[in-house]
Structures are given as structure tokens and as C-alpha cells.
Write a sequence for this structure.
């Protein structure tokens, strides 16, 4: 006798659930759209950070074509084009993004970055000048420093570099740029210090290591510093030091460094061999 009552209760409960808690078709669609939006945002991040740049360009091109009203797809396309070194194509898209009503100051900084990459320093400065001074970010000051460098406004460049270094937890790139600025000015000891600081921040930054050799070589210091380096890097740094020595007129020291570079490299070091051959030919003549 209890089974029919139980069955009725279950049926009533089922109807109650469908009436009170069951999602309608429209609600299901909205729920799926929400999930897709979250997944899409996550995929955007993956494509921007981890994907092959050209693959990311194709992804954002398709997405921007399908949903042209979504600013994040335009922004992602511009960013991916820069990563793929297709900066000329990125500039007009960054301009479109920066002019959008929902754009922020970070978008305008990115436009200035793209303009600098194409060599349009004047327009980049104009874009940065239009950004309120209260927008104090690492990227903004990094670009301000580069523009001041280009204009040979050394005091302003040093000020901006110093501010940028204080606004990031990964200052190796800025320290390297600052050091190169000092190198071009002939401030070799200051450049050496900044390159050394960059290497301490990022032991894998070969550009800073090579620049460090240029700074030391310009001072007549041809000893390899105690820094992390692979055997291949050691050979390449000896090569740089050798060329620096020759440039300063210390030909015999330079020749010895080139020979050390050839012996140190685990394979045939074509660049060092060519430099040595050219030096020997000049000496014979």
C-alpha cells in the first residue's frame, strides 16, 4: 500500500523540481554562453602567452572577424602581430583599439610601443604625451626612457630608466637598455655596472653578457668576468672581447682572444675563424 503513495510523491516531487528549479531552454543557453565566455577568456590568455605567434595571429583574426564588436579580440590580434614581428600590420589595429570608447591608457601605451618598433618616434611621443601623468606604469616609463634616449636627453632618460626599474620585479631588460644607453654615451664603467646588474637579475640574458664585454673591452679590460656562461657563450664572449681589443689597437691581445674563442667553442666557430683570417691577412699585408 505504501508503494503507490511513494510513486505519487516522487512524481509530484519531479514536477515540483521542474516547475521551481529546472532550467528553461533560454536559461540553458545563457549558462552555456557564460561557460564559453570564461573558456574564451582563458583561451585568449593561452594564445597570447604560450601559443606560437603566427598561430595566435590566425586565432585572433578568426575571432575578430566572427565578433568584430569584441575589443579583446582586436587587442589580442594587435598584440599577436607584434609578437610575430609583424609590427607594421599591428599599428593600425592598435590605433583602432586606442580610439575605441572602451580603450584604456594601457592600450595607448601599447600603441606607442608599436610605433617605436616601426621607428615612428615622433608619433610615439605624441601618444604618450596625451596619456595623463597619473598613469604611472612600468611600460609607460620604459617607453619614455627609450624616447628620451633617442632624443639624447640623457638626464630625462636616466630619470625614466630609474623609475621603470623600480616599477617591475623583472628589471633585467630595462637595466640592459639603460646600460646600452650609457655605453653609447661613453660612460663605460656605469654601463658595466648596469649590465652586471641585468645579468644578476637574469643569468640567461646573453645580450647583457655580450654588452658587458663591450663595456669592459672599451676600458681595456679583456678578462672574462665571473658570470654564469655556457661553453658556447664563453667562446662568443671571447670573440667579442677580441674584436674590442683589436678596435682599441691592442692587436696581439685581440688575436690571442680570437684564438681562445676558436679553441673554446665545442664546434667550429665560423665567425671567430673569419675574424682571425681577416686579421692575419691584414697583418701579412
Amino acid at each position: 500500500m505504501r508503494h503507490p503513495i511513494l510513486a505519487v510523491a516522487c512524481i509530484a516531487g519531479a514536477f515540483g523540481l521542474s516547475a521551481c528549479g529546472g532550467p528553461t531552454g533560454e536559461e540553458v543557453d545563457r549558462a552555456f554562453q557564460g561557460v564559453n565566455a570564461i573558456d574564451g577568456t582563458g583561451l585568449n590568455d593561452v594564445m597570447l602567452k604560450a601559443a606560437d605567434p603566427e598561430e595566435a595571429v590566425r586565432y585572433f583574426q578568426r575571432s575578430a572577424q566572427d565578433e568584430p564588436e569584441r575589443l579583446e579580440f582586436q587587442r589580442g590580434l594587435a598584440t599577436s602581430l607584434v609578437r610575430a614581428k609583424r609590427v607594421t600590420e599591428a599599428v593600425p589595429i592598435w590605433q583602432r583599439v586606442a580610439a575605441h570608447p572602451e580603450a584604456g591608457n594601457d592600450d595607448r601605451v601599447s600603441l606607442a610601443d608599436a610605433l617605436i618598433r616601426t621607428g615612428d618616434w615622433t608619433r610615439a611621443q605624441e601618444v604618450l604625451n596625451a596619456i595623463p601623468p597619473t598613469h604611472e606604469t612600468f611600460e609607460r616609463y620604459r617607453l619614455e626612457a627609450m624616447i628620451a634616449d633617442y632624443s639624447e636627453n640623457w638626464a630625462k632618460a636616466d630619470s625614466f630608466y630609474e623609475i621603470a626599474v623600480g616599477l617591475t620585479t623583472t628589471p633585467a631588460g630595462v637595466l640592459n637598455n639603460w646600460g646600452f644607453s650609457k655605453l653609447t654615451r661613453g660612460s663605460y664603467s656605469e654601463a658595466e655596472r648596469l649590465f652586471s646588474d641585468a645579468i644578476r637579475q637574469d643569468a640567461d640574458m646573453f645580450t647583457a653578457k655580450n654588452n658587458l664585454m663591450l663595456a669592459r673591452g672599451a676600458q681595456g679590460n679583456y678578462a672574462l668576468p665571473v658570470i654564469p656562461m655556457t661553453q658556447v657563450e664563453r667562446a662568443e664572449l671571447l670573440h667579442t672581447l677580441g674584436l674590442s681589443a683589436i678596435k682599441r689597437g691592442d692587436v696581439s691581445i685581440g688575436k690571442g682572444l680570437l684564438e681562445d674563442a676558436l679553441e673554446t667553442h665545442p664546434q667550429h666557430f665560423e665567425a671567430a675563424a673569419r675574424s682571425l683570417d681577416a686579421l692575419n691577412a691584414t697583418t701579412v699585408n
Remarks:
- The radius of gyration is 29 Å.
- The CA atoms of residues 94 and 110 lie 7 Å apart.
